[in-house]
Specification:
Distance between the termini: 66 Å
Largest sheet: 9 strands, mixed
Number of strands: 14
Helix content: 10-25%
Number of helices: 6
Strand content: 25-35%
Shape: elongated
Length: 307
């Protein structure tokens, strides 16, 4: 275990303890220090204070950094569709059916297994041994653009952009039914479903604010090809919002009956097409696009042929 001890300087007086530590150690996130504070691994004048404590000049801060845990997740030589890569991050076009990071029942064949093989030791470690490099995620049956961070600095920088909703995220999907409005906005707080624990739901009392902007791209009778722009990024946000207005995503087995006339469709028809953000090193806006997957293109052709 590594221990750091230092005094607070005058110019830092008045900062919240968790924010102060994230400024002193820019390679670690504020949430990382909040956890250390909660675990009493951070002491101020030999006392375990709360994250909201305002530091004072000449306070003596002691931090006990936990030892790095050796990952038990094995690298696997899995083909990856890499859209872009530099020293800070890579953009992966995730295929349908691939889990992003290991979890119960999915300890191999995940995106993390593949990027560990591809990147070797060049991945951020902020999210721990199970999710190295992962700064955000998309569902197993959702395809498209995903950011993977290669160092802690980039991870903290991009995670902050996601937190303040400044990352440009545009999805495309096919929904059931003919959406009447050409474009619109859905606002509805999203939280855990009160009964079905695998599902999220509109929950104005206990949920977090969620906003989805949508636009119709093409109509195919009882199906609508749409674009979705996320203002927030809640779990299952597009799936929950579209289901809430009576237009669940085609093939969605969780928020509709999952039935479709298209043989072999696996899960929701949703694709994370565009992702844009400020590059953590050069501070320039960068944007990347993942082409529609083959199954999606074939569905569009089938829908056109049905008209």
């Amino acid at each position: 275990m590594k221990t750091d001890i230092f005094e607070v300087m005058e110019e830092q007086e008045g900062e919240r303890l968790d924010k102060y530590l994230s400024i002193i150690y820019p390679d670690f996130s504020r949430s990382f220090f909040q956890k250390l504070i909660k675990d009493s691994a951070v002491l101020v004048n030999d006392v375990a204070e709360k994250a909201s404590y305002s530091v004072k000049m000449e306070d003596v801060v002691t931090i006990h950094f936990p030892d790095a845990v050796q990952t038990t997740i094995e690298p696997e030589d899995i083909p990856l569709d890499i859209i872009y890569e530099d020293d800070d991050f890579l953009i992966v076009n995730k295929p349908k059916g691939m889990v992003v990071h290991p979890s119960a029942g999915h300890y191999s064949g995940t995106l993390v297994n593949g990027i560990m093989y591809h990147c070797k030791d060049s991945l951020s470690g902020i999210n721990g041994e199970i999710r190295p490099g992962i700064v955000h995620r998309i569902d197993m049956d959702t395809t498209g653009s995903l950011i993977v961070c290669k160092n802690d600095y980039s991870h903290v920088n991009i995670a902050e952009q996601i937190k303040v909703h400044s990352v440009n995220r545009i999805y495309e999907g096919i929904v059931c039914g003919n959406v009447k409005e050409d474009e619109g906005t859905i606002e509805g707080a999203i939280g855990r479903h009160p009964i079905e624990r695998k599902k999220m739901a509109i929950n104005e009392k206990n949920g977090k604010p969620a906003i989805t902007h949508y636009k119709v791209l093409e109509r195919f009778g009882n199906y609508t090809y749409m674009q979705f722009k996320l203002e927030t990024g809640r779990t299952h946000q597009i799936r929950v919002h579209m289901s809430s207005i009576g237009h669940p995503l085609l093939g969605d087995q969780l928020y509709s009956n999952g039935k479709s006339p298209f043989k072999g469709l696996q899960g929701q028809t949703l694709h994370a097409k565009t992702i844009g953000f400020i590059h953590p090193t050069n501070q320039q806006y960068v944007e990347f696009e993942a082409p529609l997957p083959e199954y999606f293109e074939k569905l569009l052709i089938q829908l056109k042929n049905r008209l």
